């Protein structure tokens, strides 16, 4: 690898180069410039953006932030999601650190994590800007 200077004047590590494109990384972090740019967004918001695939999924997460923790049976009864879709969303959220399994009224349930609450709060606070 060698260093190159980009059009912005910054120095990058050249990872791969072809006749029409180059792949570069930040020399300090090893991240791509796009990953570095993404770091300008608060971490809790990035988690939500990466983990939530649809508006229904976002609605589920927001509802868990607002009303949780909730038992799984309540989640199944409250939404127009089949068990498989609900399980898939909750799994994605768990992997992203947005929800955690818990016990609610003696039943298996889920609750929003601090990262989910913070991310939803930040999204709401900036939601009116377009």
UniProtKB/TrEMBL annotation:
Superkingdom of origin: Archaea
Matching Pfam families: DUF7346
Entries under InterPro entries matching the protein: DUF7346
Spans annotated as Disordered: 17-38
Protein name: HTH arsR-type domain-containing protein
Species of provenance: Haloferax massiliensis
């Amino acid at each position: 690898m060698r260093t190159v200077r980009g059009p912005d004047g910054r120095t990058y590590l050249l990872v791969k180069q072809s006749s029409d494109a180059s792949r570069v990384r930040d020399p300090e972090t090893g991240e791509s410039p796009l990953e570095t740019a993404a770091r300008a967004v608060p971490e809790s918001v990035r988690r939500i953006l990466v983990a939530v695939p649809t508006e229904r999924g976002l609605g589920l997460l927001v509802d868990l932030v607002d009303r949780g923790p909730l038992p799984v049976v309540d989640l199944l009864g409250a939404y127009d999601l089949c068990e498989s879709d609900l399980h898939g969303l909750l799994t994605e959220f768990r992997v992203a650190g947005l929800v955690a399994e818990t016990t609610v009224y003696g039943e298996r349930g889920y609750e929003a994590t601090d990262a989910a609450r913070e991310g939803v709060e930040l999204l709401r606070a900036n939601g009116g800007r377009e």
